[in-house]
Design goal:
Layout lengths: L3 E7 L5 H14 L4 E7 L8 H15 L5 E10 L3 H14 L3 E6 L7 H6 L2 E3 L8 H19 L8
Parallel strand pairs: 1-2, 1-4, 3-4, 3-5
Length: 157
């Protein structure tokens, strides 16, 4: 049975060009896994960023099950080359989790509770990108990982 992969993010993708790119990679990913994207609605902003992050965290944690393997995209996470990330994806396939959830938190980042719940923290770059752009960049890397695993010619080392 193919691995179930879900990509969660906060808020809609507003930029049309990013939405088009995201759709391309989501369609491609469905050839390799049971893929779904989950847009979590924006929460009512708190009085400060900490409160907003806590509210987002509550919503996200309520949607996760204990058996989910959560990979949080976070600036303090571990960085990988594309080949190393492909090895990680292979490990996720082997471990037998029912669902792998890759999550991009909101604009203020992830609450401490969410970071503690995560099974893995993953950083795509030391640079800062908009949360909407990260969606496209991550999906391209996830697609690339599957092509590396299958030794397909999309990835040119």
């Amino acid at each position: 049975m193919p691995m179930k992969v879900e990509f969660w993010y906060i808020g809609k993708t507003n930029e049309k060009y990013l939405g088009q790119g995201i759709q391309i990679f989501e369609k491609r990913l469905r050839h390799y896994c049971k893929y779904a994207s989950v847009c979590i609605r924006d929460v009512k902003p708190g009085q400060n960023s900490r409160e907003t992050k806590a509210r987002e965290s509550e919503v996200i944690l309520s949607k996760l099950s204990a058996s989910d393997y959560l990979v949080l995209l976070d600036e303090v996470g571990e960085s990988f080359t594309s080949e190393q990330f492909a090895l990680q994806v292979e490990k996720y396939q082997m471990q037998g989790s029912k669902r792998i959830v890759f999550l991009v938190a909101g604009a203020f980042g992830a609450d401490e509770k969410l970071q503690k719940r995560a099974n893995k923290l993953l950083s795509l770059s030391k640079m800062t990108f908009s949360h909407q752009m990260i969606r496209l960049f991550f999906l391209e890397q996830l697609y690339r990982a599957f092509t590396i695993i299958r030794n397909e010619k999309y990835h040119n080392p």
